[in-house]
Amino acid sequence: MTQDDQIQSLLDKMHAMFDKAIGPNNRSEYMQQHNVGGIDWHFSLSADDIINQKIPRAVAGCTGKAKVFSKLMTEAGLKHVVLTTARIADLNGAEQDRKDGKKERIISGHQIIAVYDENGKLRAFDPGLKELKYIKSEIQVGNIIKFRFGGEIIPHTITAILAPQEFAKVNTYKKLRDLYICGSGDKKSKIF
Predict the structure, then answer these.
(1) pLDDT tens per residue across span 130-148
(2) Which helix (H) or strand (E) is 77 found in, with range?
(3) Which long-range contacts (CB under 8 A, 24 or more apart) does 90-96 make?
(4) Rounded CA separation 181/187 (Å)
């Protein structure tokens, strides 16, 4: 079985799991139905939480899907990394007022997976898609990836390349936002 075949098999497994999820496939409805709240709730979910609690795909979001898929790839012995990408407009956008009177820039992003090919080069794909399709961009912090959301192409900047065990520690919006703004903290990945 080729690496691509293994990845597709894992995509099939993950999406079948999400197809059997329980509850509304809408985060606000799910949170209300399960009496959970706060901006950090869905970021705090581990891959095991999502799998064991049968959390729906839209509730888990791209962060949750990346956590689950990273876990499946680790279990399969496939060497990979997780990429955090931030929407360019949000990185350059104006700050918004918070409830406590301070200013904060709200940043949207998208988390995806990258695998090493036989030459050691990273090839990225979105585990949220059911079919394996590699992204035609060089995988390097600061580079742009264009994602299609609802028929619109939205450019995102790669802000961090993380080992699976590091990405698994992203359990608050602040930690993810810090990755969007500062990268993984080493001098090579700081881009903003």
Answers:
(1) 999 999 989 999 999 999 8
(2) none
(3) 90/180, 91/157, 91/180, 91/181, 91/192
(4) 13
